[in-house]
Amino acid sequence: MIRRRPVLRPLLTALLAGVVPLLAALTLAAPAARAAALTEVTGFGANPSNLRMYVYRPDGAPAHPAVVVAVHYCTGSGPAFYSGTEFAALADRYGFLVVYPSATREGGCFDVSSPQALRRGGGSDPVGIMSMVTYAEQRYGADPDRVYVTGASSGAMMTNVLLGDYPDVFKAGAAFMGVPFGCFATTDGSSWNSACADGVLTKSPQQWGDLVRAAYPGYSGPRPRMQLWHGTEDTTLRYPNLGEEIKQWTDVLGVSGTPAATDHPQSAWTRTRYGGTGDRAPVEAVSVQGAGHTLPAAGMAARAIAFFGLDSATTPPTDPPTTPAAACRVTYTASTWNTGLTASVTLTNTGAAPVDGWALTFTLPAGQTLTSGWNAVFASSGGTVTARDAAYNATLAPGASTTLGYQATHTGNTGAPASFSLNGALCQVG
């Protein structure tokens, strides 16, 4: 476990700037009642850094489900990442198991910098997370051939670390706002590397690749695929880190660093694929124009699950709508004043089957901040809001509607969210 050092203060100052809005929003309400529930597991195996383990196993999961390890940001926790992201709703839809590790050291960051963390079986957090994976396989019958990892910020760094330390365990990863494996490496017990965070630490593709290969010397088996996400305006872990990650993983996977395909799944997204042009390319990178340290936003978790191959559709869409169309309609109205607004959102089931448990996700326009909500359980990550059913309105019969509402502050932009997604799929608006 990393010893506490004074240098931790800039780490917390920087990373708190990206997650304070999320933490404030998460205090609005506890997670909504669901058929399945987040469960804490104790005594799961070797755990040198005293991590906590939480599992979400959806009702109706198959006998041998895939596993997605979802790793939180600094100052976060497993339960906060469960509440503030779409992975649990996607697990309900597709039947995979989600493991949420929870860091317990001061600051809530994962160890991605110590020599112990950067080698297979070396100790610290990666060993504890591997114990969680093994427990999931033994306790829940999880499929060892379908184990994946994703994370945001500190969790994205851990995603890079786990793919380097355990390439024979993880089949693919999706890192939101991370840095390359080994970029944060330190030897003095500190956990912050300013050169890496500021995006000024550059290496050749082979140099980056050699750091990954050194984590498991002698390994010659297949390597996991990697999906990378970064906002161009990220001031915490700066945008040049995306290019360094691309260098690293294209080298590790032995593919060209020149994109094989480039497209724009959404207007602000530029997606490049390396070593292939399809949905399961060895390396995929998505640059999000104008985004800060606020990922994943609405729809991005679904893209990660599609990259893993855990979605039911064989080919995720490449043009708007960016997620499958849901049998739902949303009507939005708002009352606004100088610095605030009150919004009313009516959700209607337009399908032929009941909706049993729902999560409605949308992104607030720039400058708006959620302050409260009613008739649903609200959680917010940056500007992305997820409203889950409030138990008493969990079931919507065909043609039935429910109305929820929220209050938000604004800095001048009083517009409506551009889209709404029900359980990961876009609704008709109007």
TrEMBL record:
<keyword id="KW-0624">Polysaccharide degradation</keyword>
<dbReference type="InterPro" id="IPR010126">
    <property type="entry name" value="Esterase_phb"/>
</dbReference>
<dbReference type="Pfam" id="PF10503">
    <property type="entry name" value="Esterase_PHB"/>
</dbReference>
<feature type="signal peptide">
    <location>
        <begin position="1"/>
        <end position="35"/>
    </location>
</feature>
<protein>
    <recommendedName>
        <fullName>CBM2 domain-containing protein</fullName>
    </recommendedName>
</protein>
<keyword id="KW-0119">Carbohydrate metabolism</keyword>
<dbReference type="InterPro" id="IPR012291">
    <property type="entry name" value="CBM2_carb-bd_dom_sf"/>
</dbReference>
<keyword id="KW-0378">Hydrolase</keyword>
<feature type="domain" description="CBM2">
    <location>
        <begin position="321"/>
        <end position="430"/>
    </location>
</feature>
<dbReference type="InterPro" id="IPR029058">
    <property type="entry name" value="AB_hydrolase_fold"/>
</dbReference>
<dbReference type="Pfam" id="PF00553">
    <property type="entry name" value="CBM_2"/>
</dbReference>
<dbReference type="InterPro" id="IPR001919">
    <property type="entry name" value="CBD2"/>
</dbReference>
<dbReference type="InterPro" id="IPR008965">
    <property type="entry name" value="CBM2/CBM3_carb-bd_dom_sf"/>
</dbReference>
<keyword id="KW-0732">Signal</keyword>
<dbReference type="InterPro" id="IPR050955">
    <property type="entry name" value="Plant_Biomass_Hydrol_Est"/>
</dbReference>
